[in-house]
């Protein structure tokens, strides 16, 4: 196609150069050459930009794009829904914690966020932690305290892999920050398991199909079902409700400073905005005499001649 | 005495008073500003904050069937 275009162009050019040479005004020539130049530059830019990215992966390998959801904490000035964090912790504790650890969260972090101090203490005391050895050097155990981290399900990575067919369940402390799409992705992943993998999809033994997971083949099976947990506040525990609550909880785990940060953001916007206006006003105030002065040239009078 | 000369006589004339006024104003402003923003924040996010949730939990879990925010 380009060669034909090129030959047509050449013929045209020859036609112009031979017969119509004298009739072309210089403005027409300028217009033609500028159109040719702009077209060439644009095409060159497009080809260059296209050469800068490589698309080695198929769409399925990227994973399905998660839809955007209206999270209760999505807005610029919206805090977390702490009732949802509390329900989400219940979901984590009863479902997710069978395989996933939450290493960076301690029991004390829950106090004042989703639980009272006495509730957190009671939950911590249900677990045993290593204590200092006794006088003979024998290891001892003690019940958990507020300052202890929430214990994971496995002692180490090898144990976790051995129990999950070679796959390592990731730590969930920072999972919302650690995945593209954040809340939307994790919610879609949890609720996006189809009944059957689509025709033609080959899965390794023990693997499950989830279109949102990059590659589609995920070791985790669907875990959330309707009425899997019973919420203490009477919220109907549908699959999507459980997923929404646990994602809100995990988002709090990733961003425990979230509420304070947004509140601080309001203050910063107001203060910095006022200071900006003040700076503009000061500049105008200081520059007014300079901008508005008038310089007049008074030529010296020519000396009188006699 | 005009407004500007009053200001000058009371605040700007002595450096000690001037600096003291700056510190005092900053102290008062911060308190008032923080309280205002906190109040606005808590009104805007009413029902979602832990202090509201805590009250609801203490009142009994079944009281909030209607206004559960999803």
TrEMBL record, chain A:
Transmembrane segments: none
Keyword Electron transport tagged: yes
SUPFAM superfamilies: Cytochrome c, Cytochrome c1 subunit of cytochrome bc1 complex (Ubiquinol-cytochrome c reductase), transmembrane anchor
Residues the record lists as binding heme c: 96, 99-100, 220
Residue ranges, annotated region (Disordered): 127-163
Protein keywords: Electron transport, Heme, Iron, Membrane, Metal-binding, Mitochondrion, Mitochondrion inner membrane, Respiratory chain, Translocase, Transmembrane, Transmembrane helix, Transport
Subcellular compartments: Mitochondrion inner membrane
Major localization listed first in the record, in broad terms: mitochondrion
Cofactor(s) for this UniProt protein: heme c
Lineage: Eukaryota, Fungi, Dikarya, Ascomycota, Saccharomycotina
GO BP field: mitochondrial electron transport, ubiquinol to cytochrome c
InterPro entries the UniProt entry points to: Cyt_c-like_dom (IPR009056), Cyt_c-like_dom_sf (IPR036909), Cyt_c1 (IPR002326), Cyt_c1_TM_anchor_C (IPR021157)
Domain Cytochrome c intervals: 83-236
A GO term for molecular function: metal ion binding
Reaction it catalyzes: a quinol + 2 Fe(III)-[cytochrome c](out) = a quinone + 2 Fe(II)-[cytochrome c](out) + 2 H(+)(out)
Cofactor note: Binds 1 heme c group covalently per subunit.
Enzyme Commission code(s) on record: 7.1.1.8
Protein name stated in the entry: quinol--cytochrome-c reductase
Species of provenance: Dekkera bruxellensis
GO CC annotation: mitochondrial inner membrane
Similarity-based family: Belongs to the cytochrome c family.
Short name of any one Pfam family annotated for the protein: Cytochrom_C1
TrEMBL record, chain B:
UniProt key word Membrane: yes
Domain of life (superkingdom): Eukaryota
Gene Ontology cellular component annotations, sorted alphabetically: mitochondrial inner membrane; respiratory chain complex III
Keywords tagged on the record: Electron transport, Membrane, Mitochondrion, Mitochondrion inner membrane, Respiratory chain, Transmembrane, Transmembrane helix, Transport
InterPro entries listed in its UniProt record: QCR9, QCR9_sf
Protein location: Mitochondrion inner membrane
Topology within the bilayer: Single-pass membrane protein
Keyword set includes Transmembrane helix: yes
Any one Gene Ontology BP term: mitochondrial electron transport, ubiquinol to cytochrome c
Entries under Pfam families matching the protein: UCR_UQCRX_QCR9
Function: Component of the ubiquinol-cytochrome c oxidoreductase, a multisubunit transmembrane complex that is part of the mitochondrial electron transport chain which drives oxidative phosphorylation. The complex plays an important role in the uptake of multiple carbon sources present in different host niches.
Quaternary structure and interacting proteins, as annotated: Component of the ubiquinol-cytochrome c oxidoreductase (cytochrome b-c1 complex, complex III, CIII), a multisubunit enzyme composed of 3 respiratory subunits cytochrome b, cytochrome c1 and Rieske protein, 2 core protein subunits, and additional low-molecular weight protein subunits.
Family membership noted in the UniProt record: Belongs to the UQCR10/QCR9 family.
UniProt name for this protein: Complex III subunit 9
